[in-house]
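(Deposited chain)
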Amino acid sequence: MNVTIRKIGNSEGVIIPKEVLDRLGLKAGDQLDVQTENGTLQLKPVNEAFERQLEAARRFMDKYKVALQKLAE
C-alpha cells in the first residue's frame, strides 16, 4: 500500500487509510511511536497504561538506586 507525504500546515504527514486503522484498532487521537531503522520508518501504537507503569518504575529505580545496586551484588 502506498501513501503520499502531504503538506499539513508547517509540517508534513501521511494519511493512514481507514482499513489499516481499523485492522490495528486505532482511531483519531491515538498516539504512535515513530522510529527509524535501517532506512525504514516504523510506527507503533503507544500503550499509555504501559508507558505510565514504565515511568513509575523508572522513578522507583532512581529513588532506590543504591539499595537496588546492593541487592544486585
